[in-house]
Design brief:
Blueprint lengths: L3 E7 L4 E8 L3 E5 L6 E4 L17 H18 L2 H11 L2 E3 L5 E3 L8
Antiparallel strand pairs: 1-2, 2-3, 3-4, 5-6
Helix pairs in contact: 1-2
């Protein structure tokens, strides 16, 4: 299955700029202002356990993020253009398994 890209702009009361990529197995959500999300859909179809902090899924997260960047750039999505390099490095895994947003100092993306 090809992946699906999604955009979420808000619920009418607050502005969100989330972008996501999913396929039959995984779902990755890029949140430029908070913590990203990553789910293994076959094991967790209700998306109750965010695995973004788990070192073991890092290669999968990076793979999904790369696919998301490519599709956002293809579609001309402004978030893809301004945040592409950050999306390509979705999170920073630190030695003690704590995460920090990946160089997300530019709040314009």
């Amino acid at each position: 299955m090809q992946g699906i890209v999604g955009s979420y702009y808000g619920d009418g009361t607050r502005l969100y700029t989330l972008r996501s990529y999913r396929d039959n197995w995984y779902k990755y959500v890029f949140d430029p202002y908070g913590e990203d999300e990553f789910y293994m859909l076959r094991d967790d179809p209700g998306e109750r356990r965010n695995l973004i902090r788990e070192q073991r899924v890092r290669p999968l997260v990076e793979q999904c993020a790369s696919k998301l960047v490519a599709e956002l750039e293809r579609l001309g999505d402004p978030l893809g253009r301004s945040c592409g390099p950050q999306l390509a490095r979705p999170t920073v895994w630190i030695a003690d398994n704590q995460l920090a947003p990946a160089e997300r100092t530019d709040k314009s993306c």
